[in-house]
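Morning!

As promised:
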Amino acid sequence: MARAAVPGRLNWHVATIKATSDETESARTLTLDFPGWPGHQPGQHVDARLTAEDGYSTQRSYSIASAPEEDRLELTIQRLADGEVSPYLAGIAEPGDQFDLRGPIGGWFTWSPESDHPLLLLAGGSGIVPLMSMIRAHGAAKSQVPVGLIYSARSPADIIYAHELNERTVSSPLNLTLLYTRSAHRGVPPGRINAAVIATSAFPPDTAPAIYVCGPSGFVEAATSLLVDAGHRPASIKTERFGPTGT
Amino acid sequence: MNTISRGFRGRRPSEVKLPPGQYLEHGFPVLQAGPTPSVNTARWTFTLTTETGDTRRWDWKQFTALPSEDITVDIHCVTQWSKLATNWRGVSLDTLLDGVTTDAGYAMARSYGGYTTNLPLPDLRDGQAWVAYEYDRKPLRAEHGGPARLLVPHLYFWKSAKWVTGIDLMLKDARGFWEQLGYHDYGDPWREQRYQGD
């Protein structure tokens, strides 16, 4: 069992936006100054608390995108058309703006660079964010375990961290498989994750990979069923989901 | 003391009073740690075990023949969404505990797939908790915890264990799955008890 990730009381601290960087048309990375931030385990998230001038306040959880570091972290936020907080953080907020933050949170969906299992990551949409923290930590630790990413997005323009992921296929080396659900790319027809993708792109069950799946509920449900059908042990698969299922 | 974010307006979505830090959700998000277990009602059982090891067990047919209730409640997830007036059908824990002799003060819910969560036993009594097997008048879907899940709506929703298969009564409190990982032992949304120490 993972160790307790939240040892004492989790207090709110002020985070200051140091830089912003657009990843896609709707996703933005915020680099935050957070004096006293202890670092995190790749895969963990933070709670952000936004407060308006009249005192109205609301909270959201966001995954950490950066590799663990002290005093600073990066969040990548997907702007939701009908969102309350994301249009502010991924649209209006500028360097110098501040909000309250506490974390790191979550001791289950985490990867340790000391793991000696192949690392198999499956991302749907902005589910890439906590997995990117793992990929970056894997690189920073010069981990020797194979790392593979199967990443499903609507179109090539929706791939977050596209440039860095491509570079890491050379440097890490990252075994990268991109799927596009809405538009064809370089002669490859659009398609969702399926048994053939798992058979050709996922490390096989006999290599005992540590598997992390993150994305909208429908993607996670489909991907985990395919993995279990392909012979992967349910206990080797950790999931994180977001968004409603509709029913 | 909250930090005011320049230019943040937010939305005041309704007249409804939500627990602190929560927002209103109209879909039904799913939160779970791993793959959805497939639980066949032909093999499903629910077992109540007291601190002395006495057990009561029901299979699916026996369980769904117990008196059931129509339940309409608000639910609050620790990931900040709240959903109002959700509709369920299930068996009250009062029915399951009726006639059980116990000195226990705590309970551990156990699920198919290995998930556990701890609750004080008084929070399962007096019309506060159910084992639910219908949602919106349809069989509860596996991704929402079907065939049956615990429903304890006055606590954060991780306490409403999906795929529940039993409850162990305990003299002393012990931590379940998320509680061992830093989440609160009690989890009252109105007191915002999300994490240990809150």
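Chain A touches chain B through 57 residues (CB under 8 Å).

Hope this helps with the figure draft.
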